[in-house]
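Please fill in the sequence for the structure shown.

STRUCTURE ENCODING:
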């Protein structure tokens, strides 16, 4: 079966409901949860619920699904980007805590370089847009 929009992949960035209605645009940075997660872990080891709370503060537009978060953490651990351990010295029940590895810190640096380039592109776009509007 052929997809009606072969260029369309995943979540739509824009939509319009009804004839004559205005466009709604959702500007999002794909996979931004990963660098946000690495940034949080750079500041020290923590467990899943603390990570989810910190992610919600850092990326408020994204809904944090705990199942997806733990799947991402397991995948990052399999790649050697994070490490985890069970801790019984924290309040409450035993918790698995996660921390960034050297390889993870290097990946975070790479994310920062890529996001900096994207930021420059977006800034140039916005400046060009605003320059034309101010004329």
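FILLED IN BY: designer on duty
SEQUENCE:
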């Amino acid at each position: 079966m052929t997809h009606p929009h072969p260029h369309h992949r995943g979540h739509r960035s824009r939509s319009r409901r009804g004839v004559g209605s205005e466009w709604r645009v959702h500007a999002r940075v794909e996979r931004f949860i990963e660098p946000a997660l690495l940034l949080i872990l750079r500041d020290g080891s923590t467990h899943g619920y603390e990570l989810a709370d910190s992610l919600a503060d850092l990326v408020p537009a994204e809904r944090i699904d705990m199942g997806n978060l733990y799947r991402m953490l397991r995948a990052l651990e399999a790649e050697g980007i994070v490490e985890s351990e069970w801790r019984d010295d924290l309040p409450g029940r035993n918790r698995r805590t996660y921390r960034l590895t050297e390889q993870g810190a290097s990946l975070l640096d790479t994310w920062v370089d890529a996001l900096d380039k994207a930021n420059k592109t977006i800034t140039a776009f916005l400046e060009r847009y605003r320059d034309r509007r101010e004329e």
